[in-house]
Amino acid sequence: MKNLQTIVLSNEEISPGYYRMRILAPGYQQLAHPGQFVMFRVRRSLPPLLRRPFGIFQIGFLPPDCEGMPEKEFVELIYKVVGAGTEVMRELHHGDRIELLGPLGRGFEISDPAGDKILVGGGIGLVPLYMLADSLPDRSRTRLLIGGRSRADIITVTEFERLGVATHVTTEDGSLGESGLITRILERKLSKYPKAQVYACGPMPMLRAVEAICAAREVPLQLSLEALMACGVGACLGCVVKGRDHSEANPQYLCSCRQGPVFHSHELDWERLHASVEGKEQA
Ligand SMILES: Cc1cc2nc3c(=O)[nH]c(=O)nc-3n(C[C@H](O)[C@H](O)[C@H](O)COP(=O)(O)OP(=O)(O)OC[C@H]3O[C@@H](n4cnc5c(N)ncnc54)[C@H](O)[C@@H]3O)c2cc1C
């Protein structure tokens, strides 16, 4: 983990309200694993003062400016504008200075690299799944299921297809792909590939539904939680969730930023998780 003082290379709107930002990030190729995240801050002196967490979409290299010079390493984030921090981010341009703390947290574990994989993304939850798909050796056995409210929420699908991943899209309003929820496709795919491993990221109601489907079929599931967090390094304990063995007498709190954001579903207390995450969002 390092705190980089660095610059924005580009920042483009890719769908209404969704932006893709490329940031100069030397050393990330060596350091970052799929599923990890960064804490982003514009500058200490400017609001919002707190850093904001974002998943890493991909890491790449720009060709050198002149022969003999090293390639420039970059990290890409994709973000949805929802409040003060992301409003500031959307105004950034090439050359603007920013601060990047990371890579942080526990990423996805890949225990059977060549086996069937089903990746389930809800809206912006698709972000950490791209680096995961890119890291898999046999992407012909990887399927991406992506759901959103409408077509504007379905982003970067063609980039997964270019990796060789089969993609399936649903929208709630039927404006793109199949009409309805992505969990319906998950059930269909699990009937066809019952030994698949499932990886998911998205809003809590989607994660709960994915967990219920996987638990009923005894399918291994890893999921990335987007709990609200302030520090990203386990100091503020603002992002704790309850573990499976939690009780009043024997509290078990898991820090989303250090012990997650990726968890195996069996590590979490699903009865209480929904209530606690929803409670924090309303606070
Ligand atoms: C590990 C992790 C990875 C993330 N990756 C991405 C990503 O790749 N792309 C992306 O767009 N966003 C991602 N997020 C969410 C992102 O951090 C928030 O959207 C961002 O911090 C909002 O900042 P803001 O100042 O614009 O909004 P704020 O003014 O702080 O909040 C605006 C509204 O958004 C809600 N909100 C803020 N954070 C979250 C959250 N984590 N979950 C649900 N609602 C929230 C607030 O409750 C509020 O209603 C991630 C969050 C985590 C914890």
How would you characterize this protein structure?
A 7-stranded antiparallel sheet has the order 4-3-7-1-2-6-5. A 7-stranded mixed sheet has the order 11-10-9-8-12-13-16, with helices on both faces. It has a two-stranded antiparallel sheet with strand order 14-15. The protein has 3 domains: 2-104, Elongation Factor Tu (Ef-tu), domain 3 (Beta Barrel), CATH 2.40.30; 106-224, Nucleotide-binding domain of ferredoxin-NADP reductase (FNR) module (Rossmann fold, 3-Layer(aba) Sandwich), CATH 3.40.50.80; 227-283, no CATH class. Helix 5 packs parallel to helix 6 and helix 6 (204-217) runs antiparallel to helix 7 (270-282). It contains 7 helices and 16 strands. With 283 residues, it is α/β, with parallel strands linked by helices. It is 23% helix and 32% strand. The radius of gyration is 19 Å and the shape is globular.
Task: Annotate the secondary structure layout.
Blueprint: E1 2-15, E2 18-24, H1 28-31, E3 37-41, E4 52-55, E5 58-62, E6 72-80, H2 84-90, E7 97-104, E8 117-122, H3 127-135, E9 142-148, H4 157-162, E10 166-171, E11 178-179, H5 182-192, E12 197-201, H6 204-217, E13 221-224, E14 240-242, E15 253-255, E16 262-264, H7 270-282
Parallel strand pairs: 8-9, 8-12, 9-10, 10-11, 12-13
Antiparallel strand pairs: 1-2, 1-7, 2-6, 3-4, 3-7, 5-6, 13-16, 14-15
The protein binds flavin-adenine dinucleotide.
